[in-house]
Amino acid sequence: MSPRRAQGSAPLLAAALVFTALAVASALDWAPPVNQELRTRIYWEVAPNPSRPEPGGKFTWTLDFENLRNETMEGLRVALWANATEDQVNGAQYTVEYTVSDTPTWDLGGINDNPVTGVKSLQAHTTPQLLVAGKHFELRPTIFNFGKLKSPDGVTVGVIMTDVVKYLPSPWVCGSVAPNATFTVPKLGPGKSFEGSVMMTAPATAPKDFGFYLVVDPDCKYSKQEYPRGAADGVKFLEADMSTAPMPWFWGQQQKGTEDRAFKTAPAKPKAGKAISVKLTFENQGSEAGTLGLVKIWFFPFGDALFAPNYPNMDDRCNYTDPTASATFADVIVEPGKHKKVTIKDVPAPTEPGAYYLLAQADADCKNPYSFATTDQQVVAFVQYSVFTVK
Where is the signal peptide (predicted)? Predict the structure, then answer.
């Protein structure tokens, strides 16, 4: 099992950017303003839409901006080069390649969004969310038509689990890797998507890292002229988490439109040094019911770092140390796919005004049974938190 979750702390903003294509094969380069001063992170679509615009035509590239500050940003200057053939600035850049063509085609490719925040994500949509070695599960992949024509009915998409092959040939070689499962996509108009449903069986042994490749038309039934594979070569990678046996798996419930978890103080903006209540909502993303047990919380100043600090003593997955407060909820049982709220009362608020991280961890002493690929893996690999302000 290898939990992968993006860390972030603030609302997200989607931007659809429209460009005019030149009559040459080009690259779209962008220097993302991710630094200590701007405190912004960017998610981007894997291909423009359409992926093969005609000369002089319009296309859209969608970006999501995440504000990592604890204050509203009034605006952000974004520099883009729609037809660049070389780097435009020093430092990191995001590049999306596209081809200009006066021959319209259909072009299917995989997309994947976080269902709560709406940003681009690698985390596969599965039921259960935490797979169990050797057990059945449902995968729900989404295919999007990046082309300008309607796709044929019944295009095959292969699903290849990464215990079969770690890396695929790039570019894709027809029939080079046999899929573990397939599904078909009905006719899709330009800009339309389809969510498939595939029943699969997880590998008998849980690997530490696991995922899927979606490969559109894996046997190349359609020619390059019919299907140019312009959207990332028709290949999409998704990550998944797996345990060796059924187990509960508690995460703070994610709040809509933000990476913050549903961790709140009462009052929402407490006075420095006063006693407050901390209300925490946890959801069970595992495959078995479990108790929330010992819940620990920590307050840390928001500071200047881009991300929240780690839990103290994070290397010991069942002994995070020096909590601000804790309480035991042994009788609070959460079923798979459900969530419950608990409250820790009479917690002293920080003594200095300002912004603070609120970190929380359920079952902090590991009373539930956990079945990991390796014995040193953490129950939750990323810090779960929200941000609050002390007056």
Answer: 1-27
CATH fold for the domain made of 250-390: Immunoglobulin-like (2.60.40)
Which neighbouring-strand residues pair with 300? Answer: 357
- The secondary structure of residue 120, as a DSSP letter, is B
pLDDT of residue 40: 72
Backbone angle region of 207, left / alpha / beta, with phi > 0 → left and psi within -120 to 50 → alpha:
beta
Residue bearing tokens 């590991």: 366
Rounded Cα–Cα distance for residues 363 and 171 (Å): 45
Please, what is the Cα angle at 290 between 366 and 279, to 5 degrees? Answer: 85
> Does the global pTM surpass 0.85?
no
Neighbours of 23 (CB within 10 A): 12
Q: What's residue 217's pLDDT? A: 97
- Residue with token string 């929402």: 268
Residue 350 is which amino acid?
P
Q: What is the mean pLDDT of each run of 10 residues along the chain (391 residues)?
A: 41 47 34 52 80 88 76 73 67 71 94 79 91 95 96 98 85 94 98 96 88 96 93 91 92 83 96 97 95 97 81 84 96 96 97 95 91 67 87 94
Can you give the pLDDT at residue 14? 46
Q: Name the 3-class secondary structure at 234.
A: helix
| CA 327 – CA 261 distance, rounded (Å) | 19
Instruction: Spell out a b/e string for 240-270, using b for 16 or more CB atoms within 10 Å of the CB, else e.
Output: bbbbbebbbbbbbbbbeebbbbbbbbeeeeb
**Two structure tokens written together for 250:** 């508690």
**CA-to-CA distance for 130 and 5, rounded, in angstroms?**
13
Pairing of strands 136-139, 181-185: unpaired
Exposed/middle/buried for residue 178 (C-beta within 10 Å: 0-12, 13-18, 19+): exposed
DSSP 3-state of 388 = strand
Cα gap 378→387, rounded to integer Å: 23
108-243, which class in CATH?
Answer: mainly beta
Which residue in 242, 244, 319 sits closest to 285, CA to CA? 242
pLDDT score, position 108: 96
Q: Which residue has tokens 């596209």?
A: 98
Q: What is the rounded distance in angstroms from the CA atom of residue 391 to the CA atom of residue 388? A: 10
